[in-house]
Fold:
Amino acid sequence: MNGWLWAAAVLVAALVPLAVVCVRLPAPEGLVALEAAGVDAVLALLLISQGTGRQPFGDLALVLAVVSFVGAIAYLRFVEAFREE
Amino acid sequence: MTVRDVVVTALVGAGVAIQVFACLGVVLMRDALDRLHYVGAAAVGVPCVCAGVIVAEGPSLIGLKAVLTAAFMLASGPVLGHATARAIHLHRRARG
Structure:
């Protein structure tokens, strides 16, 4: 394991407490944790593709950056929609 | 260990450290808006790590992807933070 993969391992380990927050706390807190996890996972994928020497896999980081943004916006609509109950 | 290695280690180490502290902040704060504050702080870690990749590889395929990723995260981060704060505000006002 080289330095890139160790850095990626640290970032992946940081995802675990965020997942716990997502599962256990109410929707607004979980949404914020989801956004933080998205940023974290993008960097982890970039570091993994660099650390394993498979540079085309850097696409995964770029795609996840876009998809996690769109996904977070979609969940925001649900959090807002609670006001209509 | 060349100068380039030192710079890369410093940039990636700083980026990962910022990211880990931001995750800790998101997990440990009490209020949703307090937690959101640390998502904004996490955006500082992204350009650090991406700059580390670019310094290590120079102009290459992954360097270009790192630039694009950092640019997109820097552009989308404030938008997402603003939209999230607005959604939390509306959610609370509706719930009382």
Observations:
- The two ends of chain B are 59 Å apart (CA to CA).
- Chain B touches chain A through 49 residues (CB under 8 Å).
- Chain B has one domain: 3-95.
